[in-house]
Design a protein that fits this description.
284 residues, alpha/beta, D-Maltodextrin-Binding Protein, domain 2, 2 domains, four-stranded antiparallel β-sheet, 12 helices, binds the ligand C=C(O[C@@H]1C=C(C(=O)O)C=C[C@H]1O)C(=O)O, EC 4.2.1.151
Amino acid sequence: MTGMRISKISFTNIRPIYHFFRLDEFGDNQVELIPQVPSQLNKGMAEGTIDAGPVSSFEYGRNYKAYEVLPDLSISSHGPVGSIFLFTKRPLADLHEPHIALTDTSATSVNLLRIILQTFEGMNPVYTTMASNLEVMMSQADGALLIGDDALLASWNNPGYYMYDLGEMWYRHTGMWMTYAVWAVRRETAHQKPELLRRVHHEFLHSKKKGLAELDEVIRQVKEEFGGTEPFWKKYYAGHLSYNFTTEHKKGLEYYYACAADLGLLAEPAKVEVWDPDSAQPAV
Ligand SMILES: C=C(O[C@@H]1C=C(C(=O)O)C=C[C@H]1O)C(=O)O
């Protein structure tokens, strides 16, 4: 492909950014959207089958020398996130060496959970990675971590488990922003296709602005496809989630990387380097 392959997280959390994305602004085969769960998108980005778009912020940190971050885009929260939950059979305070089942769709949240349980709560859990099925996970473990739509659905149909929001726990311990996904670009793509990248980035900012300004339309569609109530989606999109990437978001993310490096989850604390659309030069 001569154009650009762009990731698209296959969860409802991303809808305000993609609802008004105009693929027809680009020529034939110029831009392709690849819908997948975050762990698969991370893999595609690392292998080069995806050029740019949202990936787990942990994946950016793991491979930051190969990527840059696109400005003003993220999936973040400053407090509860609403779709990343640890479910447990007993209160967290009663668990010391619990067996925790981790979803195989995530990279950021599974490592955020390790930081929260081990570093902040002083626990010593044992982890198993599994497919996102709460019933199966809980039949084999004391607790289960789900993200995205699996977590939303499980929270609506919770048969009585204790439920912990990881955004809320991170905020309670640090007071900082937590960024779960960033829009990354492979450095070679930024170098080889600066003009197309500028147009793609511009289109993302346009669709984000319109999606947030016309949230009622985004919610009408998500309700039709997924269920839930209007107040629920309003709170999720406009209360819990933030799609910006400010200096404060960056500070929170770099602290997350420092905590991850302390636990040996990252080889070193990653530096966040933001792509500058104005300085990009066309490849010669
Ligand atoms: C808020 C969320 O953020 C996400 C969590 C991710 C992760 O844990 O790796 C990656 C992308 C985001 O979709 C969510 O999925 O609920």
